[in-house]
Design a protein that fits this description.
Chain lengths: 325, 325, 325
């Protein structure tokens, strides 16, 4: 679809969150269709996880985003979907790859939302595809267990923070979950949540560096818990790490289903977003270093540095591999 | 209401689809109100058909669109509504007629959506009005049968197409039907569908001519089949004909109600949109000729030429008639 | 959240209606949460009244609006919420107070929408806070009775009106109430109604003075009657008074629940909006005087003048009080 002014920031770059929302919609459609392709109980595919996603080039207002999705692996109860986004300037005809994302969905019964149904198996062209898919499936399963332990954290407001400290840029946003945010099952679309997360992360990044910023990547996101219609969600973000030209922001989503459940507020999602700052010519600008004050903040900074170096090493390995082929 | 940046393209011209959506909303309101004006089963009026609509002058961001609707004929089970749109520049006070559209609605029971209710008859000021209305009613009924036969076509993607061929500009878009797209009955508003159709047709036109384009007219649209909440709709468009300064694009809407019905994918709507390309001063620009390759494409081009010449002849006849009066 | 192009007029100033909608959402969240904080029947807080609200400084596209809400008083069946809005330019870090609003909510049972539940009492830090709250509660109760009497008025269109007369700028807008406009109870959010009212008032103001206008204040608004999903609402506005640099516009909201009730059209809300016209540098411009023609119009002009002088006197008294402290 054509990118509109509301999809973009004041510099005309489309928000990463808008792209993530489109990706998730495409993934939900293809996996719901697949899971309903055999006779049986009707179901809706719910987003369980998004793998790390890199934004390779910014999309601008007036460009057309082409989204294509393909099912690449099925386990007994989950579907892996690969979604590619290409941006196309329809006036010049120029096309660029914007994103490649991998998403995991599970089919939930339309009649009983707590029942996970079985996924019809797909046919693989080559036997290795199935093996590689199984490997990815096992890896993400492990990773999902790990992130569950980060769930306790809460962000408190800080009075009169110094510039470039964590407290200076941290931000939060509340949103009342309405009908247009939800699937047929009455739960928030994963894409809606990711769009709000990107909005908060973008505010944190802009507050820190005071220049035009764009989403560079999103770390794997696990959707631990569903969020019901009528809930209030609080999305909070804080900066955890800065390199010379990038900022890492941790975002939490807390849901409060106060109207219709005895259940209290709970952590529904958390993720790391990486932003870069761009000059008017689209070149990355240096960003001010994050000032860490507490022991906690220093620890998180070091962890962020670890993730940053790991990603950098992985990318270099890929480049070398590509050069050798 | 005031036209917003999101209603318009990058050149500031409001999308024809936004206007069509407003027209349909006005028509749905007046006909639903009329059909509920007598005691009896409550109902919602559903769009059955839109007659050919010309866009007489483009509307810009910041202008106010004034929509007025009037019931002009009632048959036993359908209502004809005439909707006029005027754009007003509230700063200069200048007003222009933008559209005159004729829509047909049928009242569906709120309790049983498959039951078409009876329409309370309206009073005509002059007897001729009733006769002319009946004539229009019979004509559209005939036309509706004809278009049903065009329903089988499907659009396949083409690899590496040449510029200005049909395959080069053809486009499609998928959309998951959410609650805000639907009426009280849980079916997609006709206006929502038309807005998406215009979006796809606009992308096809821009890909073909690479310049700023606006909707010039829409041929009669028949809404053969309702589309249910939760369905996925695929909207596909391909160019069928070009004159020196206009492009005709055929648009199909296919619905896939995969979640809640045993029923497969079906063709819900199809229509022809005509676009022109405008210079910065608002003058029509020449458009590149469409290159037809297959026999099918050549046949469709000739059919499009037929529609183009017929419309041109009709318009000249009207101008002569107006000059003689 | 970040202000987007669609939230603003062509000059980049965010619509007062967008701010009012955010204020109401924050108020609805905090009061619904409070009313559900004790075990008992689940409920949704519905907006009953908004006190007079001044827009202290315009907000621009790209700025972040920070909304904070606090419960300041509870009666047996109602909650008073104080909402503050600050706009923040995230690039410069500059912050400005935009709004301070006071809203009243009543908790309606989720099971039976006509049942008003009891509100859990809040704890006051100082005894005077409770007494002052009770005084505000009694005052607004009185005022609500008064405005009920203004309910009969209807606005008729006028053919060929003279510039600067009441008929020249009067405007109306219809809107079909969809699912995304409604709360869990299926009634329109007060914030949605206020946004539409501001849209109509803004059109009236722009038609009158033909320059860039912004909302300066909104008089107390009473929500007499709920509006159900599927209703059609007609929002009408007419100018009642002009001072040298401000315009007062009266706005009515009439609801027509034609589909599902035997009940006819009724007046749901009415309010006075005050607009000023701004130059490109943000300075208030003189506005053309309103030409009153009928006795009714002259009477309304004098009443408007009364409200204007009263507000002016109150503001001067506050300034003097502040100067003395």
């Amino acid at each position: 679809r054509i990118m509109r002014p509301d999809d973009a920031n004041v510099a005309g770059n489309v928000h990463g969150g808008t792209i993530l929302k489109m990706i998730e919609e495409a993934g939900a459609i293809i996996s719901t269709r697949h899971c309903n392709s055999q006779a049986g109980e009707p179901c809706v595919a719910a987003l369980a996880r998004v793998e790390r996603t890199d934004f390779m080039s910014p999309v601008c207002i007036g460009e057309v985003a082409n989204v294509s999705a393909e099912i690449t692996y099925t386990s007994r109860h989950s579907v892996e979907v690969q979604v590619n986004v290409m941006s196309e300037n329809i006036l010049t005809g120029a096309k660029k790859v914007t994103n490649k994302a991998t998403l995991w969905y599970v089919p939930l019964s339309l009649k009983n939302v707590n029942k996970v149904l079985e996924v019809p198996p797909i046919q693989y062209v080559r036997k290795e595809q199935e093996d590689e898919g199984r490997k990815r499936y096992e890896e993400q399963k492990l990773d999902r267990l790990e992130t569950k332990q980060r769930n306790g954290d809460v962000i408190f407001p800080i009075i009169n923070p110094e510039p470039h400290t964590v407290g200076y840029s941290q931000s939060s946003l509340i949103h009342l979950v309405g009908p247009s945010d939800c699937t047929l099952l009455g739960f928030v679309h994963g894409g809606v949540t990711m769009k709000l997360m990107d909005e908060v992360a973008g505010i944190v990044a802009a507050r820190h560096c005071k220049t035009n910023i764009v989403t560079a990547s999103v770390d794997a996101i696990n959707f631990h818990e569903k969020i019901k219609k009528g809930s209030v969600i609080t999305i909070s973000g804080r900066m955890t790490f800065t390199s010379n030209k990038s900022m890492e922001i941790e975002v939490f989503v807390d849901a409060d289903p106060f109207v219709d459940e005895s259940r209290g507020r709970y952590r529904a999602v958390s993720a790391f977003f990486t932003y870069v700052s761009l000059s008017k010519e689209g070149k990355p600008l240096p960003v001010p270093q994050l000032l860490t004050e507490t022991e906690e903040e220093k620890r998180r900074f070091e962890e962020g540095k670890g993730r940053y170096l790991q990603t950098k090493a992985k990318r270099q390995a890929q480049l070398q591999q590509a050069a050798q082929q």
